[in-house]
Amino acid sequence: MKQALTPTGPDIFLDNVSFAYEKEPVLKEISLTFEPGRFYSILGPNGCGKTTLLDLLIGHMTPDKGRVFLRGKELAAWSRKKIARTIALVSQNYNINFPFTVEEVIMMGRHPWIPRFSQPDQKDMDRVKAVMARTGTDTFHDRKITALSGGERQRCVFARALCQDTPILFLDEAFSNMDISHTLRLLNLVKEEVSMQNRTVISVFHDINLASIWSDHLIFMKQGRVAACGPTDEVMNAAVIEEVFQVESHVAYNEYSRARQACFKAG
Ligand SMILES: Nc1ncnc2c1ncn2[C@@H]1O[C@H](COP(=O)(O)OP(=O)(O)OP(=O)(O)O)[C@@H](O)[C@H]1O
């Protein structure tokens, strides 16, 4: 996946990145390239560094070694506002404890685009309405976020990120609390955004089979390193799953889902 940097090149490029919170490195010598208009999924065991990787890619933390480039320019040189106009994150940890309404929370996604000391204009309001309709959050738009179920809240946070209208979208276990119907609805929506708007999506998944159906590329991580990465059809196999998760599986192409799927057995 690694390639030379060019102005029209990748959206994100990591060059030999390492990072530690304390003494032990959590990410070790990671080099990756993310091209525009593709859906990437990051998979791997608990604690292998998936969320930490997304945090580095959005500039919440800086690498101890190596460099991160966003659209050809080192991330360290980007302002917070410019990053917010370029990358939206649906975080695993979204604690909203103030009783904002759903509509107010989704409108927060427009903030990087609203000039300082200004109010949202008609365009912002229209955008929020359109996203609420697409995500099914319009049915509870006036309810307090603090009074919603886990899945409803997650849909609301997803809608806020979509409203941010960024070319790059990070999803960190963004569907973990959603039922299958809402998960499929939003994954189809994301896929549409990737193909119609040329958005780049990087999603952390625990469900290998969902990742396989929706992703163009898979990145398997293990103990802070990239264990395997490449086009989904090439890396979605039993040997990789066993190496990364230490579980046996049977992996084969499935006609119905039109993707390679893994089966597991008890015992
Ligand atoms: N703020 C922190 N301070 C110290 N260590 C941390 C901190 N955040 C995460 N870690 C550690 O870094 C490692 C990687 O954590 P990370 O959250 O990136 O894993 P993950 O792959 O996203 O895990 P999961 O699948 O459980 O969400 C873990 O061992 C974790 O305990």
TrEMBL record:
<keyword id="KW-0067">ATP-binding</keyword>
<dbReference type="InterPro" id="IPR003439">
    <property type="entry name" value="ABC_transporter-like_ATP-bd"/>
</dbReference>
<dbReference type="Pfam" id="PF00005">
    <property type="entry name" value="ABC_tran"/>
</dbReference>
<dbReference type="GO" id="GO:0005524">
    <property type="term" value="F:ATP binding"/>
</dbReference>
<protein>
    <submittedName>
        <fullName>Iron complex transport system ATP-binding protein</fullName>
    </submittedName>
</protein>
<keyword id="KW-0547">Nucleotide-binding</keyword>
<keyword id="KW-0813">Transport</keyword>
<comment type="function">
    <text>Part of the ABC transporter complex HmuTUV involved in hemin import. Responsible for energy coupling to the transport system.</text>
</comment>
<dbReference type="GO" id="GO:0016887">
    <property type="term" value="F:ATP hydrolysis activity"/>
</dbReference>
<dbReference type="InterPro" id="IPR003593">
    <property type="entry name" value="AAA+_ATPase"/>
</dbReference>
<dbReference type="InterPro" id="IPR027417">
    <property type="entry name" value="P-loop_NTPase"/>
</dbReference>
<keyword id="KW-1278">Translocase</keyword>
<feature type="domain" description="ABC transporter">
    <location>
        <begin position="12"/>
        <end position="248"/>
    </location>
</feature>
